[in-house]
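Following up on my earlier message about uridine-5'-diphosphate-xylopyranose. Here are the inputs again, as you asked, copied directly from the submission form:
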Amino acid sequence: MKVTSICCLGGGYVGGPTMAMIAAKCPDIQVTVADMNGERIDAWNSDSLPVYEPGLLAVVASARGRNLHFTTDIRSAISSAELIFVSVGTPTKSHGIGAGRAADLRYIEAAARLIAEVSKGHKIIVEKSTIPVKTASAIKTILAANSSSQATFEVLSNPEFLAEGTAVADLENPDRILIGGEITPGGNAAVEALAAIYARWIPRDQILTTNLWSSELSKLVANAFLAQRISSINSISALCETTGADIGEVARAIGMDSRIGPKFLNASVGFGGSCFQKDLLNLVYLCESFHLPHVAEYWRQVVHLNDWQKSRFTEKIVRALFNTVIGKRIAILGFAFKKDTNDTRESPAIYVCRDLLREHACLAIYDPHVDPNTIRRDLMHAGIPKDLLTTNLEICSDPYTATTGAHALAMLTEWDEFRTLDLPRIYDLMLKPAFVFDGRAVLPTHTLKTHGFDAFVIGKGD
Ligand code: NAD
Ligand code: UDX
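Thanks, got it. Here's what our run produced:
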C-alpha cells in the first residue's frame, strides 16, 4: 500500500513540526494538520508559527500550500486521509482514579470516536502521542464498536522522540524511528506503508519495527531513562556544592567512560517540559496497576529528586538574601523550560517564581521568546493570586532592565544570549551585595567573583 494522503489530529509541538517535515520530504503526499484550536491553525498558516523552533518556519514554508495544509475542518481531513496520525495531548490526570499519575486519555478517545464516525474504507491509524502501554487495544475496541461496516483499520504505534528546541534537526536526522504493529499480514503491510514514508530520508537500518506493546512502552522508558540521568547528576550537584567538587568536572570525568557517555549530564535547577514528569508518573502508575510497587517506587524517586532540586534552589536564594526576600527585586533570566523554545510547560522557572512570590519577593522576569501573558497565566495556574501578580511581578524586555535595582539575579534558562551578558554593567545596575544564582551553570563562576558578585552556581562548591 502506497500512502498518498495523510492527516494528523493535533497541531501542537509534535503534530505541526512532524507533519511539516514529512510534507517537505515527500512532495507527492498530501499532508493535512487538523486541530480544533482555530488560533493555532491561523498561526500555522501565518509567518508567526505557534511554536518557536529554530529552522521550523523554513520547513513549513517549503511545503505549505503545496502539500502541507492546516485546517480546523477535522472531519474532512479524516475523511480524505489514508493514514491518520493521532498527536493530541496526553496530560496527567488531575482528578479521579489515578489523579496526579495516570495519563488523561480523553483526547485520544475522542479522536478515536471521531475517526470511527467519519471513516469509510481502509485507514491506518498511527499513535504519535505518548500513551500508556496497551492503549492501541483500547483504540481498536473503540474503532470496532463505532465504525460503519465499510470501514477497516490497522492501528500502529509510532512514538515521537524529538526534543523541543532541536525539533527540526531531530526530525531530519533522528537516532531511530520506531514503529510497532500487529504481527499479522494486515499489520505488517501497515508497518511497511509507514516505514516507506520515513525511508524517503532516513536509512532503513534506523527504522525499527517491533510489536505494538514494545513500541508503546519504549517511549515511556526512553523518557524515564533520560529524566533519571538528570536527577542522578542533580543529586550529585548537591554533594559537589558541600564538598567543593565541581559538577562540570565530575560530569566530564564520568562522561568520558564510553559506557556512560557525555550527553545529558548538565546539572540544572531541575528538568521541566511537558514530557518527563508526565511520562515518569505514567510509568509509575502503570507499575502500580500491574502490581509492581518496587518498580513504581524506584521511578517515583526520579520525580521526587527533581522536585527537591527546584525547591532547594529557591531556598538557597532566600537563605542567602538574609532569610527574607519580602519586597526585594529579584531578576529572573529565562522562563522557558529550556533554551530555543517558547514552551513553559512544567518549567522549573514556574516553581522557583511561585515560591519566591509566596515569600513576597518582587520579580522582574525576562525571557527572549516566552509571551508575557504565558508567564502570568502559568503563575496564576500555580496558585499565585492576581493581586500579587499586579504588585510583585514585572515582565521586562531585556536583562538589563530586569537587573536594574535588583538584589539578586536568578538564571533559570540556558539561552545562548545569557552567556555573553555584560556582567560589569549588570553589577553596576544591581544593589550590593549583588547576588547571582545560576541554576544552569552558564555564567563563568570565576569571572562573576572577580567582578564582585556574590555567586552561587549549581553544582559548584566554594
Ligand atoms: P500540544 O498540547 O502542543 O498539542 C496537542 C493538540 O491537539 C492541541 O492543539 C489540541 O487542540 C489538539 N487536539 C486535541 N484533541 C484533538 C482532536 N480530537 N482533533 C484534533 N486536534 C485535537 O501537545 P504536544 O506537545 O504536541 O504533544 C502531543 C503528544 O506528543 C503528547 O502525547 C506528548 O506526550 C507527545 N510528545 C510530545 C513531545 C514534545 O516535545 N512536546 C515530544 C514527544 C512526544
Ligand atoms: C524530551 C526528550 O528528550 C525527547 O526525546 C522526547 O521526545 C520529549 O521529551 P524535551 O522535554 O523537549 O524532550 O527536552 P529535553 O532536551 O529532553 O530537556 C528536558 C528538560 O531536561 C529541560 O528542562 C532541560 O533543561 C533539562 N535538562 C536536559 C537538564 O537539566 N540537563 C540535561 O543535561 C539535559
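One observation from looking it over: The first strand starts at residue 5 and ends at 9. Hope that helps, and feel free to reply on this thread.
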